[in-house]
């Protein structure tokens, strides 16, 4: 990989050029050389150099060291182009290398080449997607992609509506907003004071965004009732119905259930068919948070994990997770055609004029709570064009195959204990047990000591930069590792690498 200095060739006229940096327009005479050198640096240093298995996942530095290495403060005088290129190299150097094959720390990873080019095109065009007038291609593109996604969910002819939203948390908030408006449209004008005490339900292992958005929208965190889960992390339908009945007895008004298709930690898929039956019985809105697991819908082999999703009123699905689109790329899909618009539109006359010379039904921005909005659709659409649905299916099948292989591999190795015997998704959870704890399972302090292993091992892997895997406790379970497979460039040899690396870094830990 070229050194940073090899990519930054000093420009003799750089100081002169910096005098015109204030102009908000690309000028060939002033900016062409800089832009081409910047792109070369990105391609060589970031895209290809950082995707090598021999590179580091992260070059660990303490906060004060990064603040010393990079001049982070804004300043009065303009930087030269050479200085800017140097800053680019430093930012890349000290940032986590999420494109690295061994970054398996979060529910996203890798930098897909087609998604990246699509994102670059998005940034070069710099659109804001609210009207056909200013975003003619993207307003049409969004509707086509969202319709196809709704069709894949299982809604006839892709009917319904949908939006791209800034993250799955906000998409889950849209579900609460739409469900409330569907049952109580007067809240739009009169607020929460005009409706009964509303209660919603979700899994105790669901993403925290449901409770957070209930708080944000004035429903109150206490009115987000958490439903018990079984040993595999799935909602227990009987407990859901019992809690709905209890809420009604207490004088509250249930209106929404959020089920999860691929929980954050366990990767569990809630039983959607029985949950849907309960929702129909009590006339509740069913939302499915498939932000993580939605990608499995692209695979004939694995879409059964989401059986019943077609019964939902709304769905969150994040292509930037299991399908590996670049951050961020999140969608909210809804079965009901006009609820998004009726719930959120304000008909701002300076933007959404009804007397335009074209069909204003293409001015879709009023469905959103945002005004200015990125064209997140383009990178995903471009990936879909490049790979086809067949490519996405192969991608998903590869992820699940790797997860199965890794699970079986560590099952047979000394020092590894699985949290779940057979994970449903591509999350694999396990404890690594160093030599000092092997054979000590019956000791009174075993769990306390095991809890300390993961932080120590994580510190070692980060400081060496050899991989990045997250850990967490869960309920009564002490700290365990959760490795997440979302990068289809990995193969079985990489699965063995991960296990070997845990053993190398962790076997001599003393707790």
From TrEMBL:
Cofactor: pyridoxal 5'-phosphate
Location of N6-(pyridoxal phosphate)lysine modifications: 321
Keyword Lyase: yes
Alphabetized UniProt keyword annotations: Decarboxylase, Lyase, Pyridoxal phosphate
InterPro entries linked to this entry: PyrdxlP-dep_de-COase, PyrdxlP-dep_Trfase, PyrdxlP-dep_Trfase_major
Bilayer-crossing regions: none
Domain of life: Eukaryota
Keyword Lyase assigned: yes
Single GO BP term: carboxylic acid metabolic process
One function term, GO molecular function aspect: carboxy-lyase activity
Gene Ontology CC terms, in alphabetical order: cytoplasm
Subunit note: Homodimer.
Family: Belongs to the group II decarboxylase family.
Name of this chain's protein: Uncharacterized protein
Organism of origin: Arctia plantaginis
